[in-house]
Design goal:
The structure is a single chain. The protein is an all-alpha fold. Helices cover 77% and strands 0% of the residues. It has 8 helices and no strands. The protein has helices at 2-10, 15-26, 30-58, 61-80, 96-107, 111-123, 126-147, 155-179. The longest helix is centred in the first third of the chain and has 29 residues, at 30-58. The relative contact order is 0.24.
Length: 184
């Protein structure tokens, strides 16, 4: 459940949804495009979950909590960072195998997967962190897939992005204070 909420908040800016929306409109094989995007996320989430579960056995809970703090604060900063304009990389006409490789590489190590790995490191239950992360990522993309990339430019979407960043910052700072034993 924590991974679902954390990944949902971390993707409140809609970058993934906007990218997938543009890819679906640019490519002729829409179902394959969506399948590749979800497949790439799942593969990277499983890798992050395994890494987090391994880290759970190797590091203490205080260090794992600090890892969660770092993941939350970096996700908050990414939300506040201005989006760069979309550039065309020729993904619209790339073969499916090349497109799948690009999707795997582009999603590797992004904020969602960093959060999944960090939360898996706290509990050791990486499969649940990956499943929650997938649900949160999917829910964060739905408005942008339904209403298009222009939704991100609306004032309400900007306010939601700032609120999500504030929640992630407070959550991250609270986790850090708990890791240092300053609060219970």
């Amino acid at each position: 459940m924590l991974a679902l909420v954390a990944v949902l908040l971390a993707n409140a800016d809609g970058r993934s949804g906007i990218a997938l929306s543009r890819l679906v409109s640019a490519r002729s094989d829409r179902r394959v495009t969506v399948g590749i995007a979800f497949g790439a996320f799942i593969v990277n989430a499983v890798v992050a979950a395994i890494a987090g579960a391994i880290a759970n056995r190797m590091i203490g809970q205080g260090v794992a909590a600090l890892l969660v703090t770092l993941a939350m604060l970096s996700a908050a900063v990414a939300l506040l960072w201005p989006m760069k304009p979309a550039r065309e990389e020729g993904d619209g006409d790339a073969p499916a195998t090349l497109f799948a490789g690009r999707m795997l590489a582009n999603q590797f190590g992004d904020r969602s997967h960093f959060l999944i790995a960090a939360l898996a490191a706290t509990s050791g239950a990486g499969q649940w962190a990956a499943a929650g992360g997938l649900v949160g990522w999917t829910l964060s993309m739905l408005p942008f897939l339904a209403f298009g990339p222009a939704l991100a430019e609306r004032r309400a979407a900007r306010n939601l992005r700032w609120a999500a960043a504030a929640i992630l910052m407070i959550w991250g700072l609270r986790t850090a204070l708990g890791a240092f034993g300053l609060i219970g």
